[in-house]
Amino acid sequence: MDRCERIRAKGSDGARSLPALLMALLLVPSVASVADDAKGRVDIRSAYSRLAGGVYYLNARIDFVLSDAVRTALDNGVALDVELRINVARTRRYVWDSGVASLRQRYRLSFHALTQRFVLSNLNSGEQESYGDLDAVLFQLGRIDDLPIIDAALLDDDARYRVNVRVVLDLKQSSGALRLLSFFWGDWRIASEWYSWPLRP
């Protein structure tokens, strides 16, 4: 597995082979087929919260399965946005649950043509890491370790709370010639099911 290294790359260098990407997409039988069969999937395999130092932290393991067509799009300069949606709700017996906290952790995955590496940008913090292999970056992206979600002081001792987590993937069109891809992809987006569990035992 390729070790990640910090980089200072800014922006996108565009596609390295737009004709190859368009050819791959033209071989797809129909736009409907792209929408239905060539998206891939994202699954939350496990998730739990733990209390440390008065703060609840999220730990999760996520599987990203990208189709060959999506991998080709990434290879050719189309960015992939990944959003981890987290909310904490107070559960109540006879009325609707009440939202307590909401967090969106956002990432962007793109291919950097100059360095021939995949760049993972944390859009919340601005931090970037680079990887030589797409599977390596997807593996790292699927490991959520000790992400702070809520301060315990904001919670009532006698109340019950649930954490709900979902992952949404969205292909982002680049400028210039890559806008032609919108004809094939349209609004490409996939999302996991909501994964829920009690915040505390």
Fold and architecture overview:
- The chain is of the alpha+beta class and 201 residues long.
- The chain has one domain.
- The protein is 18% helix and 46% strand.
- It contains five helices and eleven strands; from the N terminus they run E-H-H-E-E-H-E-E-E-E-H-E-E-H-E-E.
- The protein has helices spanning 18-26, 31-37, 68-75, 134-141, 182-185; strands at 5-6, 41-52, 55-65, 79-91, 98-112, 117-122, 128-131, 143-151, 160-172, 189-191, 195-198.
- Strands 1, 4, 5, 6, 7, 9, 10 and 11 form an eight-stranded antiparallel sheet that branches. It has a three-stranded antiparallel sheet with strand order 2-3-8.
- Strand 4 and strand 5 form a beta hairpin.
- The chain is elongated, with a radius of gyration of 19 Å.
- The relative contact order is 0.26.
- The model is unreliable at 1-16, 24-37 and 175-180 (pLDDT under 50).
* Strand fraction: over 45%
Q: What number of structural domains do the residues give?
A: 1
The first-to-last residue Cα distance is 37 Å
Average pLDDT works out at 79
How does the overall form come out from the CA principal axes? elongated
Our count of helices gives 5
Task: Considering the chains and any ligands shown, give keywords for the structure.
alpha+beta; disordered N terminus; 46% strand; 5 helices; 201 residues; eight-stranded antiparallel β-sheet
Concise structural overview:
With 201 residues, the chain is α+β, with helices and mostly antiparallel strands. It is 18% helix and 46% strand.
Detail the topology: elements first, then pairings:
Layout: E1 5-6, H1 18-26, H2 31-37, E2 41-52, E3 55-65, H3 68-75, E4 79-91, E5 98-112, E6 117-122, E7 128-131, H4 134-141, E8 143-151, E9 160-172, H5 182-185, E10 189-191, E11 195-198
Antiparallel strand pairs: 1-7, 2-3, 3-8, 4-5, 4-9, 5-6, 6-7, 9-10, 9-11
